[in-house]
């Protein structure tokens, strides 16, 4: 059944697509979970909708409420869609060094954007949002980095969907930002298929984004539980761009840059399994499509120029 | 054979502004001790007790060492070690 009562009801239940051309051997297979097919085009629809639903159930959100959220883009876009449908005002705090398309999309869905300084990336967005929250105690910060409803969306949705479509799954590879995706899938797999390896692909940005004043300003999301993760890779923009182009070239899938980082980590797992002579069915998450990143030149310029243009950006 | 250690901006006060330094060691712990002998003060910013500091991430050939033995993680010739502060994503 693919009929839904409303747009919000259609979130999730995304297709799982085989990647025969990228898979290194008949018994080492890669599969793409197409989260770009959610209503606003990213995996964040799941977390945003679940966070809003839970906040309504708990009485935190009431008609006319204002939602405040630090986000590098996709969560804000998802919240903006849900807020529009349910009549909330949304204020997003977003680093100024994010792609122009994200700002345009947020504006289109009616969100207000407060820019935070480029240096320090999302760390600064979190800090600015917390300060705004203190000044406006009536605003509701859903706070994706620490809200259990973020991970729960994947525990209840993404995880079970993967296991149902591919009971022989051996690895799940996803991006590590708020950690919500991996925490939810990881917890679900730990309970239902404990041998599944949970692989995190974390974007490695340019120096500007790590520009903290001191180490104590570092940030680990409250949701993060490393015991649910098998291994974690840091992937730079050059590898992410290279892989996102490879995915387009070989499988015809037009994905965003964080997905490039995920493909890079997934291929490393595939090669490792192939060398060890082990069977593998590796699910990788397509977080969003490439539309929002066209202005970065990541798909059209040479690799050196793409790397240079992304160096100061929060690109994932 | 030396291992390259990439240092984040915030810790370059300990390396005279160098973006990368080289060192030797069969484990991460030995490497950090070796680098500390030429760049005193760095170790205390990276290590607390028996492990890495909470807001410090160390990657060997892009893999987070917390999942491959932590300070006891084995190193080989020509490995690249990247040190980064933990920052928010999403």
In short:
Chain A has 316 residues and is of the alpha/beta class. Helix content of chain A is 39%, strand content 17%. The longest helix of chain A has 19 residues.
User: What string gives the helices and strands of chain A in order?
Assistant: EEHEHEHEHEHEHEEHHEH
Largest protein interface, residues of each chain = A-B, 45 and 25 residues
Helix content of chain A: 25-40%
Count of runs of 4 or more consecutive helical residues of chain B: 2
Radius of gyration of chain B: 12 Å
Q: Give the overall silhouette of chain B.
A: globular
Record keyword descriptors for this entry.
heterodimer; A: 316 residues; alpha/beta; Rossmann fold; 2 domains; 4-stranded parallel beta sheet; 9 helices; 17% strand; globular; B: 90 residues; alpha+beta; Ubiquitin-like (UB roll); 5-stranded mixed beta sheet; 2 helices; 18% helix
Give an overview in words.
The complex is a heterodimer of chains A (316) and B (90). Chain A is of the alpha/beta class. Chain A folds into two domains: 175 residues, Rossmann fold (3-Layer(aba) Sandwich), CATH 3.40.50; 98 residues, Rossmann fold (3-Layer(aba) Sandwich), CATH 3.40.50. Chain A contains nine helices and ten strands. Chain A has a six-stranded mixed β-sheet with strand order 1-2-10-7-8-9. The radius of gyration of chain A is 19 Å and the shape is globular. The model of chain B has no long low-confidence stretch (mean pLDDT 95). Chain B contains two helices and seven strands; from the N terminus they run E-E-H-H-E-E-E-E-E. Helix content of chain B is 18%, strand content 28%. By secondary structure, chain B is an alpha+beta fold. Chain B has a single domain, classed as Roll (Ubiquitin-like (UB roll)), CATH 3.10.20. In chain B, strands 2-1-7-5-6 form a five-stranded mixed β-sheet, with helices on one face. A two-stranded antiparallel sheet of chain B has the order 3-4. The interface between A and B is medium-sized, with 45 and 25 residues.
């Amino acid at each position: 059944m693919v009929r839904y009562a409303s747009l919000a009801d259609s979130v999730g239940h995304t297709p799982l697509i085989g990647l025969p051309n990228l898979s290194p051997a008949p018994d080492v297979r890669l599969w793409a979970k197409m989260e770009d097919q959610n209503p606003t085009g990213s995996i964040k629809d799941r977390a945003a909708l679940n966070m809003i639903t839970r906040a309504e159930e708990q009485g935190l959100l009431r008609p006319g409420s204002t939602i405040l959220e630090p986000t590098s883009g996709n969560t804000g876009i998802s919240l903006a869609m849900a807020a529009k449908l349910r009549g909330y005002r949304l204020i997003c705090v977003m680093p100024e060094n994010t792609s122009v398309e994200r700002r345009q999309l947020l504006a289109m869905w009616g969100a207000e954007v407060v820019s935070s300084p480029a240096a320090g990336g999302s760390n600064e967005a979190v800090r600015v949002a917390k300060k705004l929250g203190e000044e406006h105690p009536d605003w509701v910060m859903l706070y994706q980095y620490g809200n259990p409803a973020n991970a729960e969306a994947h525990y209840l949705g993404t995880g079970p969907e993967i296991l149902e479509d591919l009971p022989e799954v051996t690895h799940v590879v996803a991006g590590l930002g708020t950690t919500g995706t991996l925490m939810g899938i990881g917890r679900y797999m730990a309970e239902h298929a404990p041998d599944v390896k949970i692989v995190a692909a974390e974007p490695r940005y340019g120096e500007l984004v790590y520009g903290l004043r001191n180490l104590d300003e570092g940030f680990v999301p409250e949701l993060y539980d490393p015991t649910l993760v098998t291994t974690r890779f840091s992937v730079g923009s050059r590898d992410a761009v290279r892989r996102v182009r490879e995915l387009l070239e070989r499988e015809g899938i037009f994905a965003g840059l964080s997905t490039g980082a995920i493909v890079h980590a997934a291929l490393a797992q595939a090669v490792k399994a192939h060398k060890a002579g082990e069977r593998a069915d590796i699910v990788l998450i397509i977080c969003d499509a490439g539309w929002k990143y066209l202005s970065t030149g990541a798909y059209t310029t040479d690799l050196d120029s793409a790397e240079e243009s992304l160096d100061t950006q929060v690109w994932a | 054979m030396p291992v390259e250690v990439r240092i984040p901006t915030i810790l370059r006060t300990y390396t005279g502004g160098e973006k990368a330094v080289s060192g030797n060691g069969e484990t991460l712990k030995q490497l950090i001790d070796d680098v500390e002998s030429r760049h005193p003060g760095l170790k205390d910013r990276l290590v607390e007790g028996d492990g890495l500091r909470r807001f410090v991430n160390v990657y060997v050939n892009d893999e987070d060492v917390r999942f491959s033995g932590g300070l006891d993680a084995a190193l080989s010739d020509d490995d690249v070690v990247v040190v980064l502060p933990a920052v928010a994503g999403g």
